[in-house]
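Predict structure. Chain length: 100.
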Amino acid sequence: MEVGDFRCHSRGAVGYNASRMTFEFTMIDDKAHVVDCEISSRAMDQLAGTRGALPAEREAQFLHLRDGIERIASDVFDEVPTSGRKVRIFHHHVRQHELR
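Prediction complete.
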């Protein structure tokens, strides 16, 4: 599956980090480098149109929203130089994506 300049990493869901309140995942860029990514709980809830999913529900929520999350991650990757850095998705990225 192609998403912008990213290709989806095979089952790149790493998991929910409760202390950071983010879901961590990986994607592969156009040069076949693994790029670490994360999306905040608030951003996932906004994308899902819900609030307050439990930590145990985050992986299922990520998998359900995966296509949209990966499109946003691709947009963030394309807009912000990320060499050696993690792609981070926050609620304002979801809002910007919805306005497009």
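Summary: The chain has one domain: 2-99.
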